[in-house]
Amino acid sequence: MNGEEEFFDAVTEADPRVAGVMCVDTGRSNGIGKVGERPPRENGIQKHRTALPAPMFTRSDFSVWSILKKCIGLELSKITMPIAFNEPLSFLQRITEYMEHVYLIHRASCQPQALERMQCVAAFAVSAVASQWERTGKPFNPLLGETYELIREDLGFRFISEQVSHHPPISAFYSEGLNQDFLFHGSIYPKLKFWGKSVEAEPRGTITLELLKHNEAYTWTNPTCCVHNVIIGKLWIEQYGTVEILNHRTGDKCVLHFKPCGLFGKELHKVEGHIQDKNKKKLFMIYGKWTECLWGIDPAAYESYKKRERRGDPLSKAQPDDSSQKADGDVLDAVPEAQETVHVIPGSKLLWRVNTRPPNSAQMYNFTSFTVSLNELQSGMEKTLAPTDCRLRPDIRGMENGDMDLASQEKERLEEKQREARRERATQEAEWQTRWFHQGSNPHTGTPDWLYTGGYFERNFSRCPDIY
């Protein structure tokens, strides 16, 4: 096991509007079972919980630096962090949060023009990272063979994911519209880098969205996420990097720039970009914040407004956070002050707005309402879930219930069980066999990918491994 993989284990990481926009295309199979077929139990039709069973465990009594300073000269990969720095979710469930704003996919499917469809897809790509705002807890690493399913009839989709590799850690996922309007799939390999004061997570892997009615496929990769002040100080998150969304049928491309914070926090959370055709002609300008909203406007109107803005008074700048102090010889990464909300250019079109978080979100690991429901284990679900589902994982369940001692003990037990299974396979010279996904090439990019094999929702779980 190399240091990078262990570091992922060790260091803290970082409104439903589906009605009226869902298109029905019952003439096409979704690739899982028969058209119109439903699993034995759909959990999406029920009301979902609005709070966790226990409030978040305080992290104020723990210091990453208090652990690391005792290990100077030792290999970082061997350092184990307290479970208090986790959040009660698996990384597979964290991936499922992409689906919180799935109404944007349904809306895209109903748009007659390619430009309008790309606008919706761009908004969906930005919305997929919005739930990470202020989420400084690290999700639990999925065990090899771990799965997570989610069926939401109210939001019009079902979702399945599997941890297909442990070295390196790779999570594969597949989702489809219940009205056969879309397929959404990919595999994520979070590449982590430790920079002394911050942890940078680069989510390698291609994300693919297929709009079946239009025979269109869009591909992109997510921006880089960085968690600052992991050693000491107040944790804060930023997303940065360029995201390019390609429509493989038309050649249209959306280029989105997630801006790094900048010197005085002026660019914090900002997203700017454009949609261009295959000849690189700009068709539409996009701007906003990944934590708030996304707007778009015609390029001519955008340029005209920017010219007037440059001739006028410059925008006021945020000042550095005066509360940042030096400690133990280290300078903190100053927490940028939140800038004023997005200034809307006259004539702009709203593409997406973030859902309001529940009032008690700060006591629930800064979860959104959608996230709060992900680990809910409703009565009778054990009979229909795969035995590898995250909801059945005892360490996460213990943490969610506020029993940190049990959670820590179970985490150690599960990790040792996984190591023992790996040693046994090595002795027998047996290769791990994935259950629901297989290695292949992305049909649109040709790059290596993990593809859904099918059959999960037929619910034959007899060959599932015993991982808990």
Describe the structure.
This protein has helices spanning 3-10, 64-68, 91-96, 103-109, 114-127, 299-311, 369-372, 394-400, 404-428; strands at 86-90, 138-140, 147-152, 157-166, 169-177, 182-194, 198-204, 207-211, 216-220, 224-228, 236-247, 253-258, 270-276, 282-289, 293-297, 326-327, 330-331, 349-353, 437-441, 448-452. The strands form 4 sheets. The chain has a 6-stranded antiparallel β-barrel. A two-stranded parallel ribbon has the order 1-2. The chain is an alpha+beta fold. The chain is built from 9 helices and 20 strands.
What's the quaternary structure here? single chain
> Share of helix among residues?
10-25%
Return Rg in Å: 22 Å
Order of helices and strands: HHEHHHEEEEEEEEEEEEEEHEEEHHHEE
Ends apart, CA distance between termini: 21 Å
Total strand segments: 20
Mean pLDDT: 81
State the low-pLDDT regions, or none: 1-44, 70-78, 315-332, 334-338
Please outline the major beta sheet.
Answer: 6 strands, antiparallel, barrel
Structural shape:
globular
Q: How are the strands of the biggest sheet laid out side by side? A: 6-7-10-11-9-8
Sheet/helix structural class: alpha+beta
List keywords for this structure.
alpha+beta; 6-stranded antiparallel beta barrel; 19% helix; globular
Describe the structure in brief:
By secondary structure, this protein is α+β, with helices and mostly antiparallel strands. It is built from 9 helices and 20 strands. The N terminus is likely disordered.
